[in-house]
Amino acid sequence: MWKKIRFYLQSYDWALITAVFFLVSVGLAAIYSVDLSRGENFNLLYTQLAALIIGTAGLVIGSSLHVTVYKKYTRSFYFLTLILLVGVLFFGVEINGTRGWYRFAGLSLQPVELGKIALILILSLVTTKIGRRFYEFKFLASTIFLTFLVVGLVLLQPDLGSAFILVGIWISYLIFTGVKKEYLLGLLIVSCLIGVLGWFFILEGYQKERLVTFLNPQRDPLGAAYNLSPKAN
Predict the structure, then answer these.
(1) Which among 15, 38, 64 is the end of a domain?
(2) pLDDT digits (tens, 9 = 90+) for 54-71
(3) Local confidence band at 146 (pLDDT 50, 70, 90 cut-offs)
(4) Which of 4, 158, 163, 171 has most Cβ atoms within 10 angstroms of its Cβ?
């Protein structure tokens, strides 16, 4: 029994887990400071601690599942996430100009958070199906389709921040899988063109303000631009 437990513990990437929990600790300290400065009863801190416990339990359960379970249910989970992302556009609650939450029985669900997990799983499934043939354009095309199907639905909410995170997940995946440098260069050029067109023809004023403030925090030291809503512009 102890050998099994030892083997199970050794299977974890402890360096990664340590880094994650360090970042979580910094976040909790910041939230504690905010609650303390407001003179509140630490509701935000307790909420985050509860989320940490649930997330840790999910980590343990998820890591104990056999890889065949993920292979079997990844497609279903991905399509379920797409359905939720479509549904939230019609039945979701709008907050600060973004229709990205379901509300029921006092609880809320933001399907884009499931989308991040679903994207990682579906891209991993693509890797297992294609094998080591990352140099093929078929590999790149399939990842583009699967990624931007989710990104497109998120942009319709619109949730630009989450869309950037999803694209970041995809780009990181391409880099670590060793996709051809020519493909990465082509994607960089296309991204620059889309960025220019988006800035002048797609992005709203408040979205531009958030991007500028992100690149130059000193421009808005209080972080006011982060809380700008479309209605305020």
Answers:
(1) 64
(2) 888 988 888 888 888 988
(3) very high
(4) 163
Task: Judge whether 170 and 123 are in contact, CB under 8 Å.
Answer: yes
- Phi (first) and psi of residue 91, to 5 degrees: -115, 5
User: How deeply is 98 buried, as exposed, middle or buried, from its count of CB atoms within 10 A (0-12, 13-18, 19+)?
Assistant: buried
**pLDDT tens, position by position, 7-53:** 667 777 888 888 988 999 998 888 888 777 777 677 788 888 888 89
175 and 78: one domain? yes
Say whether both 35 and 58 belong to one domain: yes
**In-domain check, residue 1:** no
Q: What are 87's two structure tokens? A: 């549904």
